[in-house]
Here is the input.
Amino acid sequence: MNIIKRVRLKNFRCHDEFDLDCDRPVTLIIGENGSGKTSVLEAIYMALRGKSFKAVDRDIKRHEADFFRAEIDLYDARKIIIRYSEQPLRKEFEIDEKKTTRLPKKNRYPVVLFEPNNIYLIESSPSRRRDYFDELYKQINDGYTVILGKYNKALKQRNDLLKLETVTKDDLFSWNILCAQYGVKLREFRNETIKKINKYITENYQSIAKNDDRCSIKYTGKNISENEYLKELEDCFNKDRALGYTTFGVHRDDYEFMFNGKNADGSASRGEMRSIILALKFIEAKILEQETGLKPVVLLDDIFSELDEMRQKHLIFNFKDYQMVITSTNVPADMQVNKNL
Here is the structure.
């Protein structure tokens, strides 16, 4: 079941030198805030996904150092080394002695990352909810990443033209076509994935809350044809030109968390919203396993401080079949510490 065997860091964030054995199904790292606990999860995430979930590379290296190195040993005998240097400026991944500037797709591994701010997803902004679900979709299907990148490039070109006083509808036509083409594909994938989540979310929620309340996620982007999408963009021309940006499209869509038929943000209590997010996280792990055929590594970053004892127990129980690396400021009941910082 274990994927990660050992983590070694050099000049990574606040760590001069760091070494951690992940020889148990659950690895627990204890330390005060600011002691570098999250940095360990960040290094694991980079090794498995190819990028940080927090910052750009130059912000990761320890203050006054001119390089960092992260070395992750896996149980399948592979070793992933990440190197970053400023003189000369270079970043590389080394896997089985083969060096690349990016982590190859074949070497990426699914990860469930649970951060404290995830608890507030229901109450957060539409852009944060889009970012959250986009990261999930990217792990499920590499094609989603490609299409989203193409959409964002076409959207940027359209927005740049909208800032020109002389822009006409004809100037936007080719970019409208591309936005419609990619936007429809993104919406289709989002709608299908949300349907899968909704099949299980009430059941998972009720197993946590021990009641008959029902919850679901409503994606606001409707499935429409490319021609309908194109017409929406053309109809918005005057408004978009006045504002200087594109007001219609998948980049404006949102996810509404529903609780007993009403928007959870306003109808659910803080405890109920936390149970909904827990249920979502459990489903995320299941979907990643179903779609990739791999059991994801579960990274839990200081989440116990946000959950009561009952929800802490559900968290550990529901992720028991996955390797977990957990950071915390204190030791939860019945858990052994792997590393004190």
